[in-house]
Design a protein that fits this description.
This protein is mainly β. The protein has a domain at 58-270: 6 Propeller (Neuraminidase), CATH 2.120.10. The chain has one helix at residues 3-27, and strands at 47-55, 57-58, 61-62, 66-71, 77-81, 86-90, 96-100, 113-118, 124-128, 133-137, 143-148, 161-166, 172-176, 181-185, 191-195, 208-213, 219-223, 228-232, 238-242, 250-255, 261-265, 271-274, 280-284, 300-303, 309-313, 317-324. It has a 4-stranded antiparallel sheet, with no helix packed on it. Strands 4-5-6-7 form a 4-stranded antiparallel sheet, with no helix packed on it. Strands 8-9-10-11 form a 4-stranded antiparallel sheet, with no helix packed on it. Strand 10 and strand 11 (143-148) form a beta hairpin. The radius of gyration is 26 Å and the shape is globular. It starts with a helix and ends in an 8-residue tail after the last strand.
């Protein structure tokens, strides 16, 4: 090899060695470092601890068959009672402040109210199954409007409303109980589309109950007859189904601050927890640490802004609980 070429190659090798050593130190022996590697999965919740029970006489009437719950971003809690046919507004400390029974200039008293939701503007929506309408109040339960559900021409005719949720754009998703589907109403209350006709495959529904708007704008549906949850995007397209093979009688669900979904079983009183992608994590209940009686035919659950889980059940009570996960082992 000519002397000039040999000296050139030796110089290149000398320059490359430090770079190779540097790369080895950065990436290790296993090759290039991975970008955005996933962290270790969090420990699943394993127990509920009772902090407080709310029951007894409230605003002149004993609590009577709590059937639905909703919370606002200000910490207000709203309870819909089936026996008393009223909504109770609680402050952050869960002291009852006011009730509303559907009376006012635009409405008569409730007839079989079924569900309640709070929208992004803190309006409270109540579905009145018996009178085939939705009522809207402000966050202080002062009546502000009514949406008529008695439309016998659009989409083959509407039935009676059940579960309700409102998107960030003001669209109102309401269960059409008689036709086992969801009716989407626009911001002025006109029907715009249907979602989930009766059946099982392809996102079809069978006796849907509670609806819930997720943090990502998706709508979650308790597909009770099909023993699963369905998740739809804002246009009514199927995102995923959750709980098939695990759920038996899902009546309600709630999302916590970690985007986990908690699903309530009516018959067994069990509460199942899934991660945001629908992977099963754990089951708690019906026994709750600190409670004198296990859950009995619970009807709804919600998370407050500070992480408390509120559960309504057939003993005419609200159970305010904390969730617990096992403490991770960090070393000897």
């Amino acid at each position: 090899m000519p002397d000039n070429l040999s000296r050139f190659l030796n110089g290149v090798t000398a320059l490359m060695l430090p770079a190779a050593v540097f790369m080895a130190a950065v990436t290790g022996c296993g090759g290039p470092a991975k970008v955005g590697t996933e962290s270790a999965p969090e420990a699943p919740p394993t127990e509920l601890f009772l902090e407080k029970t709310v029951s007894g006489t409230m605003l002149g009437l004993p609590m009577g068959r709590p059937i639905a719950l909703a919370v606002s971003d200000r910490g207000s809690v709203y309870l819909l009672e089936g026996a008393n046919k009223r909504v109770i507004w609680f402050g952050r400390d869960l002291v009852p402040l006011r009730d509303f029974s559907g009376r006012g200039d635009l409405a008569t008293s409730f007839s079989d109210p079924r569900s309640i939701a709070v929208d992004a503007d803190r309006n409270v929506w109540i579905s009145d199954f018996g009178h085939r309408r939705l009522l809207r109040t402000n966050d202080r339960l002062e009546l502000t409007g009514e949406v008529d559900f008695r439309n016998d021409t659009t989409f083959g005719g509407l039935g009676r409303p059940g579960g309700v949720a409102v998107t960030g754009f003001g669209d109102i998703w309401t269960v059409d109980v008689d036709n086992q589907r969801i009716i989407v109403l626009d911001a002025v209350g006109d029907p715009s589309q249907t979602v989930g006709d009766f059946g099982h495959p392809g996102g079809k529904l069978d006796h849907p109950s509670k609806l819930l708007k997720g943090q990502d704008g998706h709508i979650w549906v308790c597909d009770r007859g099909n023993r699963r949850l369905m998740v739809y995007d804002g246009e009514g397209g199927v995102v995923r189904e959750i709980g098939t093979g695990i759920l038996e009688d899902p009546v309600a669900m709630a999302l916590d601050s970690r985007h986990r979904v908690w699903v309530l079983e009516f018959e067994s009183g069990k509460i199942h927890c899934f991660d945001r992608e629908g992977r099963y994590l754990s089951t708690v209940g019906p026994a709750i640490s600190g409670a004198s009686q296990p859950l009995s035919h619970p009807t709804d659950l919600v998370f407050t802004a500070d992480g408390q889980l509120i559960i309504a059940d057939a003993y005419d009570r609200l159970l305010i609980c904390r969730t617990a996960s096992p403490t991770p082992v960090t070393g000897p």
